[in-house]
Amino acid sequence: MRYGLIGKNIQYSKSPTIHEFMAKKLNIDLRYDLFDIEESDIPHLFKHLRNYVFKGFNVTIPFKQIVMKHVDVLTSKAKRIKAVNTIYIKDGKIVGDNTDYDGFLGLLKMSKINVENQRIFILGTGGAAKAAYVVLTDLGADVTVVTRNTNNIDPMFQKVITYSKLSSDQVDIYVQATPIGTYPKVTESVLNQSLVAGKTVIELIYNPPITQMMKYASKSYGGANMLILQALRSEEIWFNQKISINNQLIEELKEVIYSE
Question: pTM score > 0.85 for this model?
Answer without folding.
Answer: yes
